[in-house]
Amino acid sequence: MTKTHDSDVAFIKALAELLRENDLTELQVKRDYAEDDSLNVRVSRQMMAAPVATVAAAPAAAAPAASAPAAPAAAPVSAPADPAQDPGAVTSPIVGTAYLSPEPGASAFISVGDTVSEGQTLLIVEAMKTMNQIPSPKAGKVKRILIEDGAAVEFGAPLVILE
């Protein structure tokens, strides 16, 4: 059974402040006090930007579906409206900060129009001070880069579109 410690409330408030200050969406921490005494805390918040983008994309997708003759011409236009649905989208496997180059001042891993091979590093996502290389899942051409250098990314967020 977990006992309430006076410092737990202050600890949870500090986690919430850390979440807000670093623009994070979720933190999870386990604190062990003794063999049978611990505290598991998960602090999260809802980001409002994603639902707004989804709602805005829905009417645009519904309009081409209403007119059958325009459907073949509208298919390429509707794909960029929601990059996550693009078949060539490379998404983030983790929450973190995305970097387009290996270090500040260095040239970017990729540019729009580049041809990449399967397994080639497209960018880096830093999570908890660990640099995670994001490899290309397939060979192709870089159609779009959807993030800016140093941008915060969520799990599943589209990063790059490959053709």
TrEMBL record:
Transmembrane segments: none annotated. Pathway: Lipid metabolism; fatty acid biosynthesis. Keywords: Biotin, Fatty acid biosynthesis, Fatty acid metabolism, Lipid biosynthesis, Lipid metabolism. It comes from the Bacteria. One of its GO terms (biological process) is fatty acid biosynthetic process. GO terms for cellular component: acetyl-CoA carboxylase complex. Residues 87-163 form the Lipoyl-binding domain. PROSITE patterns: BIOTIN (PS00188), BIOTINYL_LIPOYL (PS50968). This protein is a component of the acetyl coenzyme A carboxylase complex; first, biotin carboxylase catalyzes the carboxylation of the carrier protein and then the transcarboxylase transfers the carboxyl group to form malonyl-CoA. This is Biotin carboxyl carrier protein of acetyl-CoA carboxylase. It comes from Thalassobacter stenotrophicus.
